[in-house]
Amino acid sequence: MATSSSDPGSGSITDAVRADVPPAELSYGALVGRGLDIDAFLAEYFALTGVDGIRTVTLALGRTPIEVEPFEMVEGIGALESLKSCAGAVQAEITCAHVDAVTSDRAERGVRQKHPEWGIGADVAMARHESPRSGVEYVNFCQLLVSGLPFTLQGLKYGVINAAEAQVIYRETRHLDPAARAEIDARLFTDVHTCFGLGGKKLGSMVRHWALAYVSENETDLAAKALKDRYVNIYPLDAHRMKLVGILPTEYGVAIAQVLARETGRAQAAGDGRNCAQVAADTVLEGLTGVSDPASFSVQLGVVMTDRTLFQGHPEPAYLQGYGIISAQKARELLAGSPAKPLDSWVRRLYTAPGTGDLVAMDQKTRLFSGGLKQFINVRDQFCRTPYCGGRIQHLDHVVQSARGGATRAENASSRCAWCNATKEAPGWEESPIPGDRHTLRVTTSSRHVHTSTAPRMPGTDYYPVRPVSPPPPRRRQ
Ligand SMILES: [Zn+2]
Predict the structure, then answer these.
(1) What is the Å distance from ligand 1's center to 475 Cα?
(2) pLDDT higher than 70, residue 110
């Protein structure tokens, strides 16, 4: 944030103070009465106060009285949306300036010459309470918005479009060459009344339509990209369901669609009682697992629960490894339904004595986490432990790297997604475990911002039932 004083001209607050105005006449009302230029005043205020000024205004905004007239209330909602849009534009400009500053500093010091932007996105994302991995895409968005979409940037600043619309324009133009992108950017804002007020879907479709005229990639490139970007993922949706999602090249999708159509057709012809959607889901399940009845799966279920939940019908939820929190009843059903598959001893020890540190004290001589320790850390952490990430566990990481003398022990271990495990090697990034009841680690990013990450609460370590909590206090600088 700039610290140099602007020149707001006559009517500015500093002019008023310099003129020896008595304090009583420095109230907002009095100054407006004397002809204060409020725009110049605010520009000067932010130039002088920088980040602290933004925080002060944020706190003041939180205390804004709510209008009682319906028209004014909706006006207020719109005005606040403009404020968010403008904040998004300024955030993008600051992000670009930050990237430039860090990369030129690294270039000067000869650090990370191959990937000078390494870790910057993670730092920015965590400041925005978002997954570190998403920061790379966010930085790309900011750079393209600031350098390649000047009209969109201005539109965002003045609240003509909101952040979601800016994202749509970015997404639909990022693959174009700069000249084509600039043409579409200008075209959008020569007639804002036709281009905006459409909603994201119609805006996206319109920009895509224009962009097709400029696409330089040929069909072979697009097909290769579709093949390269294929994925399927499954994640918990709620207490009883998981969601399977994916994006596949056309031929994969067509093949799957044909199998599903064939199987649903067969089921209908045979008078099957299931509907088409159910037949399709069962076909996918059988195709992937080779069994049609989930009860006959030979997968191991790791359940962590209290003795009260298991034996006394207590309602405290349990934790199912590879899924997350499940209801007490569901946990009891799972255990009752598989008497032939007793739980591993490490699970029993966790449930009988949560937090005692039995396994925590387990020492390993190798540099690799393995066996009971590996399972323990996976259950303890549940997700990637980088603040705001929560990605799928892919690596067991040394919080303090073994090259720096970090031990292969539970206290110095954390579960990570592959991306975060690589990102922590960014210049200046440091991590260390913090002693305490529940496993906590401190993450200091390259910009020297400190975040902490505490392992999720295990069944038996929490008060139950959960009590309501007060709203958090205003966020202050760390
Ligand atoms: Zn992660």
Answers:
(1) 24
(2) yes
Cis peptide before 150 (omega within 30 of 0): no
CA dist 83 and 62 (Å) reads 13
**Rounded Cα distance, 270 and 165, in Å:** 49
What confidence tens digit (pLDDT) does each residue in 266-285 have?
A: 999 999 999 999 999 999 98
In whole angstroms, give the CA distance from residue 121 to residue 134. Answer: 8
Ligand 1: centre distance to CA 130 (Å): 11
Residue 116 CA, ligand 1 centroid: distance in Å: 20
Q: Quick check: helix, strand or coil at residue 64?
A: coil
* DSSP category for residue 292: S
| Spans of all domains in the chain | 13-64, 71-216, 231-295, 303-352, 371-454
Residues 208-244: tens digit of each pLDDT? 889 888 876 666 777 888 899 999 988 888 777 889 9
Residue type (1 letter), 65: P
> 122 CA to middle of ligand 1, Å?
10
Residue 139 CA to ligand 1 center (angstroms) comes to 17
CA of 382 to the centre of ligand 1 (A): 12
